[in-house]
Amino acid sequence: MSEERVETTAAAVVLALALAFASASPAAGAQALCEKSQIRLVNSMREIAQPYHANLSKGGRMFARWAGLEGQYVLQLNQGDSDKQIALMRSILATNPKCTVFNVEPNADVVVKPMVDTANQTGAWIVTHWAHNRGMHPFDGYDHWIAHVAVNSEEVGIAVSEQLVAAMGGKGGLVALQGRLDTDPAQKRFAGLKSVVARHPGITLLAQQPANWDRTVAFPTIQAWLAKYGDRIKGIWAANDDMALGALEALRAAGLAGRIPIVGVDGIPEAIAAIARGEMTATVSSDAFYQGSIGLAMGVCVLTGQVPPPQTWAKQQREYYLRTTVITKENASRYATEPTVEGYVDEWRCDKLWSRASGPAY
Amino acid sequence: MALRQAVESRFRAGILSMVRRTSGPLLALFALTIGFAVAESQFATLANLRNILDSSAVPLVLSIGMTFVIRQGSIDLSIEGLMAACSLVFALVVANDRMQFDLGWLGLPIAAALGAVFGLANGLIVTRLRVPSFMATLGIGSTCLGIAMLLSGDQPPLIRDPALRHWGLGQSFGVPNLALAAAACLAAGFFVEQFTRLGRYSYVVGGAESVARLSGLNVDLYKVGVFAFAGLMTGMAAAMESARLGIGHVEIGAGQMLGAITAVVIGGTSLSGGSGSVLGSAIAVLALAVLADGMVFVGATPYMEKAIQGGIVLVAAIVAGWQVHDRLRVVK
Amino acid sequence: MSVAALRVEGLCKRFGDTYALRGVTLEVRPREVVGLVGENGAGKSTLLKLLAGVTRPDGGTMMVRGSAVRWRKVRDAADAGIGIMFQESSLVPDITVAENVLLAHEGSAVRLGIYRWHELFARAKALLVKLGMTISPGADAHTLSFSERQLVEFAKALAVETRTCDAPILLLDEPTSALDERGVATVLQTIEELRTHASVVLVSHRLEEVRRVCDRIYVMKDGSCVGERDARTCTVEALQRLMIGHETGTDFPREAVRSQLAETVCLEVRQLSRRDKYVDVSLALRHGEVLGIAGATGSGCEELCRTLFGIVPPDSGTMLLDGRTVALRGPSDAVAQGIGYVPADRPREGIIGAMSVTENMTLAHLAQFCGRWGIDRRREREVAERWIERLRIVTPCATTRASDLSGGNQQKVALAKWLVGKPPRVLILDHPLRALDVVARRDILKTIRELACDGAGIVVVADALDELLAVSDTLIVMRDGRISARYSIAQDRPTRQTILEKMI
Amino acid sequence: MSPVGPINQQPDSDEHIAIGDRRHGLGTGLVSGMAPVAVLVTLALAISAFAPSFLSAYSLRVLAEESSVILLLAIGQTIVIIVGGIDLSMAALASLASVIIALLLPELGAGAVLGALCIATLIGALQGFVHVQAKIPSFIVTLAGLGMWSGIALSIANTTVPVAEHFEAVGWLDAQTWGVPHAFAFGMLTLGLFQIALVRLRLGRYLYAIGMAERVALLSGIRVWRIKTFAFAASGFCSGLAGLAMVARTSSGSPTIADSLLLPSIAAVLVGGTAITGGHGNLARTLLGVCIVAVMRVGVAVSGIAPAYEPIAYGALVVIAVAMTVDRRSIGIVK
């Protein structure tokens, strides 16, 4: 399909979606399930030593403070241990499970099924992000699985790879730093890169290696590649910003900072600053602050009865792709400063919960 | 005249025995370098040599402290936790985006001193509470990791100090600064090992502790001294890695412990204590760095490296233990 | 009369319930070499350790150059110029000769913890030269030959000289026990040279050497000083008589010596040898016979025991049990063949202190107490109580911890370990009476004879002759790894004097 | 390697060199026996003050579920510590077992579980054999094992391996009947069997004898190498069981799934009162230790204490527990 045709169909889809959301906008006034004082907000994620997860936690805490529930905000970190993430959820549900909302960044795809089952059994509420095993959806009878806010990692991969290829002038060799291969984002983003490379014959993928989402591993890997491929490396693709920044430090050590385009994903403040300085080319932000808080917002709306119970929602309200924004030198200044509550207040309101939905994900 | 000969003979004999003892790791270093150079044309370039020096700087400093500890018959499993805590403290006291400190170069001695304090804790627990060293250091390591997580909070501090960042990344006279720092630490380690009581008595405490006690040496004092010295080196290594990456990171020490132990064992320090030298360990660190770098060149995944390190420690321990075959010797 | 360099009066030391030293009085004059001789267990090494500050006396006084002293640790004795040279090697392999020699006595060679190597080498060189050695102080200790190491140990003891301006006092414990002729000669020659600027206390088994190099000789027996002789005038025989002379009142009643013994040989050994431990040892043990082996430390009898029990394989030679040749790969094979072994070092090798008396007894043959459901505790207790009564073991009950029993009773438990199962074919007892009081000794000897009557072949190794003569049917004497004499107690009636001659 | 010749021979019997035996220790037998019970009670009460329903049936069931994997690891660790060693490779071995089970389940079904358990037991036995025959300290052998097994697990499957079919061969572990989680019941069954073996069987008596005084055991004709190899094999078997329980919980195998459980499982054994120097302790004490560790892990989650305090608590707990229970008489020299 030619370029224009793609544009129009996309517009039509968005219009249809907007109508669907509007019609299904919930009638106010369903009865409240829990008093505000009883509601407990739990943000479950890998750890907070990495900037992306740190922003998730800050977003959640910002929402809790705005909603006056800061006292009941709990942070659960699993240090990259899937079993511990499940264990932490089940153990906290020992007390008042009915009024607990989980906003979960899964450590690995397999974590979603046990956690959702636990929510259903104990009556707790859960919103999951990124991805889960195929073949299960909130609307398949998981009443307590409020929604799955997916991110179309392949789209993200494609978008950021396009930026890299453009910055490389359409030709030359690039190296790729992969994330933890047992997570859907890592696999899908790399698939996106490969499809873009396939479409541009001038671009060759020189080497790829997992660096565990971590800059301390990315640094020596890039150094070795620089030594091996030297100036044949025209671009560096990293599955997340932390690894991209590790690559940047390696380039700085070799005196090449800013001379080789680097792309990453997550849109953490340090990466956006690097883009503003021109040392990084682009990143894709799924807006960690938003991801860290929207799940809790949905939960509060359900528990305070401002929205009807999730099982009555439309399918695309229970599982949708989150709109992501590509950040390049042009719009870097807008995202440079750390966002404040005002930026999200209107998106947390119960009738605007799906403002960033960009299409069904099932 | 006899005096000069005595001194010369010491160093001739000393150096001879040093060379003989480090012949193992030297052989490994040359074999690996030549092997990879043949396999990968770009491997033996100046740039890659500089890379290997740069990536072996931190493990080398760690292996200096570990050599003293293993020579004493003990082990230090607290490296990863200690590095995390010292990295965070270092990042928070120099110019960073979270606290308003800006102590600049003073951050290095602070990180090293903090490492020495944790090392001191290791030593006191082993000597005063008579807890075996692998248990004591496992405990202290875990405690330090918790402290690092507390300090890191939800915003790991980024280091803004340009001088330190240049020190971490830059080069002078074509040699990476961190490699120069590591060489300085090696020189200091060699001086302590060959010219101070702490170094010489670590041979005695490791080789024949009952003789040391009998000769009236304050054995516990030197044991605590060695653990503190190892802690100091670990703190220094944490500062170096933080300056390079520009961040105080909880996982900065991940994977460094097994590498340091492997290097010290290959470097000629027997696990039952009493022998080995920091020079041997340093050469072994270079050999392991060549191996790691070569593996990236060849495209092998980093996971096999961990398995290879485990295998090397085992084989080295078997070879070292083979000579002492007294059927009745009890090994816990 | 010049003040004595070192003088002790009424020195005593207790280990548990036995007296190792019973009031020893002796003195060492400046620039004099004093010999100290006596049977094993006479307290010679214990006395040296008290003088060197390794252990603390339980009574008596010590005077150095006329002033009373009490050592709290080795460093105090060293400060007063008293150096000790132990039998075991105390050299650290990976440091230089100079460091070994001056360990803990570096003095000005190490200032502010920093080694000034040239000064250290100079001081060490001076000491080595003083002992006529040409070893370079810079060489690492592990590159030295065996005799060189022995001489460096000498220099190490002499290093105390640097700590006081007076003449040092050297205590030498069996310096020549593991040396060849050339090594012995150099040691004696070294002691001769030391005489010019130090006083020496020499402990040794080699009476000939002691007589040649010492001025005066003290003879010790059972923890006390039984005589002092001038080395020039007294003969080796006189010394030996003194060492084993008048009875100390612990004569062991000797039942009727059985003239004829069962003919069948239960254990036979032919031309057993093991490098620098023992050479060409052959012996035969009949059922019901008690074979005593006498030998000083270093004579190889202890290593022989360990070989018989399979702990240390021999280099050559064969071993037969009831006529069948056996090759013992380890203690488990020996136990399977019905051999029992009561080690000399009881607390560390004989019994498990933390376990109960019953558990200790049944440890070696536990299989015989296991029913279908694992260990049959009732049967285990029954058998234990039977043997407690049979061996007259004094214990509150069968389940008290072994560490709570007295030395003698612990020894009986270590013995019972081999008796609870089917009767043992061979029992090897290594210094069974060591560190036991007289009553316990007599009791154990009686038990040994009873076991012999039950038909077991028993090998007893000891260095105190009165023990062996009281219990053995035949006696073998070992010296420097070789069997130097064989006696049948009934026929040859060897006297202690003749045995001692063969031992030393 | 420096030749460790005869001259470096440690003087065998220390009798003639009397080394000051500093007899001080924070706990006597009795105190260190009762201490774990006191710690468990105070911890449970403190946390139920924070969260009143902590002692409710539901939360106790979660507690049981939580601790089943640590319980399995702690059983193997106890046996190795009783015989006087330590096994640092258990967690890595459990992860390897989980990867093997997840990979083989589709083809072999229940056979995969047996296969993985056999492999884990063999690896454990190999580590014990090398430790005894080559005279290498057990923590060195198992530290090398930690590196090797996690390296191999990561290179076999550097991703999480979801279990496609035949999950029922493993899934029963994750279910529960009458409110009792199967995994926990399975763990208790294993604990019971091993405790019976320790008390009733000849093997158990030999394990304690070797732990208390290995030299005496050797001279009593016990085949020390065989018993020690068995102890490490049992530890490997328990690692396999832990890997199996992991796969049941997360319906997948992952090369790093159990890595964070090494310290809690060792802490559980030591806090229970089993002495690190060997010979003292049993599985009942370990069960107490596992409860303490589980209450602590849950307590931290429930009471909202910052997650960073958990590693700090482990570090302190391990050091204090060892200091109280180490048997000072038996170790002259602490390296």
Short recap of the structure:
The complex is a heterotetramer of chains A (362), B (332), C (504) and D (335). Chain A is of the alpha/beta class and 362 residues long.
Task: Describe this entry's structure for a reader.
Chain A is an alpha/beta fold and 362 residues long. Helices cover 45% and strands 19% of the residues of chain A. Chain B has one domain (24-320): ABC transporter involved in vitamin B12 uptake, BtuC (Orthogonal Bundle). In chain B, a hairpin with a 2-residue loop joins strand 1 and strand 2 (175-176). With 504 residues, chain C is of the alpha/beta class. Chain C has two domains: 6-96 and 143-244, P-loop containing nucleotide triphosphate hydrolases (Rossmann fold); 265-503, P-loop containing nucleotide triphosphate hydrolases (Rossmann fold), CATH 3.40.50.300. Chain C is built from 18 helices and 24 strands. Residues 247-251 of chain C have low confidence and may be disordered. Chain D is mostly helical. Chain D has 13 helices and four strands. The longest helix of chain D has 27 residues, at 224-250. The radius of gyration of chain D is 21 Å and the shape is globular.
Could you list some keywords that capture this structure?
B: 332 residues; mainly alpha; ABC transporter involved in vitamin B12 uptake, BtuC; two-stranded antiparallel sheet; globular; C: 504 residues; alpha/beta; Rossmann fold; 2 domains; 24 strands
Helix content of chain A: 40-55%
**What is the CATH level 1 assignment of the largest domain in chain A?**
Alpha Beta
Number of helices of chain B: 14
The outline of chain B comes out as: globular
Strands of chain A, total number: 13
What is the end-to-end distance of chain A?
A: 23 Å
H/E series of chain B, N to C? HHHHHHHEEHHHHHHH
Judging from the principal axes of the Cα atoms, what is the shape of chain A? elongated
Q: How many beta-strand runs of chain B?
A: 2
Oligomer: heterotetramer
CATH superfamily of the largest domain in chain A: Response regulator
Quote the average pLDDT of chain B. Answer: 86
**Spatial strand order of the main sheet of chain B:** 1-2
Strand order of the largest sheet of chain A: 2-1-3-4-5-11-13
CATH topology of chain B: ABC transporter involved in vitamin B12 uptake, BtuC
Largest sheet descriptor of chain B: 2 strands, antiparallel
Looking at the structure, the CATH topology of the largest domain in chain A is Rossmann fold
Topology:
The complex is a heterotetramer of chains A (362), B (332), C (504) and D (335).
Chain A: H1 3-23, E1 40-45, H2 51-66, E2 73-77, H3 82-92, E3 100-104, H4 112-122, E4 125-130, E5 145-150, H5 153-167, E6 172-178, H6 184-199, E7 203-210, H7 215-229, E8 233-238, H8 241-253, E9 262-265, H9 269-277, E10 282-285, H10 288-303, H11 315-318, E11 319-322, E12 325-328, H12 329-336, H13 341-348, E13 357-360
Parallel strand pairs in A: 1-2, 1-3, 3-4, 4-5, 5-11, 6-7, 6-8, 8-9, 9-10
Antiparallel strand pairs in A: 10-12, 11-13
Helix pairs in contact in A: 2-10, 5-6, 7-8, 9-12
Chain B: H1 2-21, H2 23-39, H3 46-71, H4 79-93, H5 107-128, H6 133-152, H7 162-169, E1 171-172, E2 175-176, H8 177-195, H9 197-207, H10 209-214, H11 219-245, H12 256-266, H13 278-298, H14 302-322
Antiparallel strand pairs in B: 1-2
Helix pairs in contact in B: 2-13, 3-8, 3-9, 3-11, 3-12, 3-13, 4-5, 4-6, 4-11, 5-6, 5-11, 7-11, 8-9, 9-11, 12-13, 12-14
Chain D: H1 29-50, H2 57-82, H3 90-108, H4 110-133, H5 138-156, E1 161-162, H6 168-171, E2 176-177, E3 180-181, H7 182-200, H8 202-212, H9 214-219, H10 224-250, E4 252-253, H11 262-272, H12 283-302, H13 309-325
Antiparallel strand pairs in D: 1-4, 2-3
